[in-house]
Design a protein that fits this description.
The chain has 163 residues and is mainly α. It contains 5 helices and no strands.
Length: 163
Amino acid sequence: MTMTKSKSPAPDGLPLKETSDIVEQLRISLAETIITQMKAQNFHWNVTGMSFGSLHELFEKIYKDHFKATDHLAERVRALGASVDGRYATFLETSEVVETKGPMSAKQMVEAMAADQRMLSSTFRELADIADQHDDLVTNDMAIDRAGTHDKFAWMLAAHLDG
């Protein structure tokens, strides 16, 4: 018995119809990661105060992590047969993470970055759910790993607010 698919498969073997939902959430995840990466780098450059050393280092760790993640996310979109619009304007339109305005205190930076990390964790959990629904184990695994990373960053940032 020969089975035929109504749609051509994406490069990884998933039907194109199924990958469109995954690609859309990957694009959101990418946009939010890039906006947060730039915010972390901005905070790294501008943090001051008694916690300068530890926050300067933590913000650097976050932006370097997010920079690496963006490449993996964009490559996954490409592996699923879609294109990536790499313009910041597109990322700003797509992302629920928003840029900050004006100078901020170290505490405000930490609060903003912790909220962004929680949002990213939620975004990646949604990606994991969508990928799971379509049996896309590769994207699901990537999303679960990223959610854990963002949970850890949120916890580390929140620790700076205690006391």
